[in-house]
Design a protein that fits this description.
The protein has about 300 residues and is an all-alpha fold. The chain has one domain. Helix 3 runs antiparallel to helix 10, helix 4 packs antiparallel against helix 5 and helix 12 runs antiparallel to helix 13.
């Protein structure tokens, strides 16, 4: 595990170092991200969804993932009230405490810790228990501060490349897809992980962390510990076995704040510096907190 995590860290540091030493300009990261979103992610999603064996656990991580998200929103709201935050800061705190970076960091971490089988559950959770919730809920959360439109752009959702890939992967399951095509998808999909990490490192910024250190600390406690703990407690209360799909779901909730959540806040002109700082510090802390969760979950549950 430590060797796999070291590989993740190295790709991440290479991107950060490349920008700091001006070897690769930060603006080049857009090309990497465009490749990931339009080619790499779709290939990865189609391959893993086609290979995934659907079960009650798959449905369980989707349903319980949604429940955990709603409970995290509620807990974050209560904490924001106890801190006496205004509406703008409350919305920013909720967004950055609730939604996880299940794609750009979730995929590399899960693949390193639980291999290809774990990655298949990560893809399901990312698309249906994280991306779909933020797409549907973010307009309503932001409206609390902005009091503007809560219109949901369904067309944008349906045309999102990984979401299209999810539909394609599901539709192909009844058919015998040639291995040469599946191997091509697998090879293309595996390029995603190093490129993701490199591009994340290329975009990392720490310049505004000192400005909101207290709120960032609380934000990280909720995002990296409370949110996954909520799902773990639900499983313990319901006496559901901690099998691989649920381990993956908990780890996905333990990922740092989602980049898309920060983009929503920036577009709405809500606490841009706090949003960017949350993403940055969350990424760094995740290299410590994710292994902690991994060892905890393996001590509590089955190994498969």
């Amino acid at each position: 595990m430590l060797e796999n995590l070291l590989q993740i860290f190295v790709f991440f540091i290479l991107g950060y170092t490349a920008r700091k030493l001006k070897i690769i300009p930060q603006e080049y990261s857009k090309a990497y991200i465009d490749y990931i979103m339009n080619f790499g992610f779709p290939a990865l999603v189609i391959y893993n969804i086609y290979r995934l064996r659907f079960s009650l656990d798959v449905l369980g991580i989707i349903i319980l993932g949604w429940i955990a998200i709603f409970l995290t929103i509620f807990v974050s709201y209560l904490i924001s009230k106890s801190l006496k935050l205004d509406k703008k800061r409350t919305v920013a705190f909720i967004m950055m405490s609730t939604f996880s970076n299940t794609g750009f960091l979730g995929y590399p971490f899960i693949h390193s810790l639980y291999g290809e089988e774990g990655l298949r559950y990560a893809v399901i959770f990312d698309n249906l228990a994280m991306f779909l919730p933020i797409f549907l809920l973010a307009p309503f959360i932001i409206n609390y501060a902005k009091e503007g439109s809560t219109k949901i752009n369904i067309k944008k959702l349906l045309l999102f490349p990984p979401f299209i890939a999810l539909a394609i992967g599901i539709s192909l399951k009844p058919f015998d897809v040639p291995e040469i095509f599946l191997n091509l998808l697998k090879t293309l999909g595996m390029t995603v992980i190093p490129i993701i990490l490199f591009s994340v490192g290329l975009n990392l910024r720490f310049s505004h962390i000192g400005k909101d250190l207290k709120l960032l600390t609380v934000n990280m406690l909720v995002k990296l510990f409370v949110s996954p703990l909520i799902l773990l407690l639900i499983l313990l209360i319901l006496k559901i076995d901690l099998t691989l799909p649920y381990k993956v779901a908990i780890l996905q909730l333990a990922m740092p704040p989602m980049v898309l959540a920060s983009i929503y806040l920036i577009d709405a002109d809500l606490e841009k510096d706090f949003a960017v700082s949350s993403v940055a510090i969350g990424i760094i802390l995740s290299f410590l907190t994710v292994p902690i969760w991994y060892f905890l979950l393996n001590s509590l549950g089955h190994q498969n």
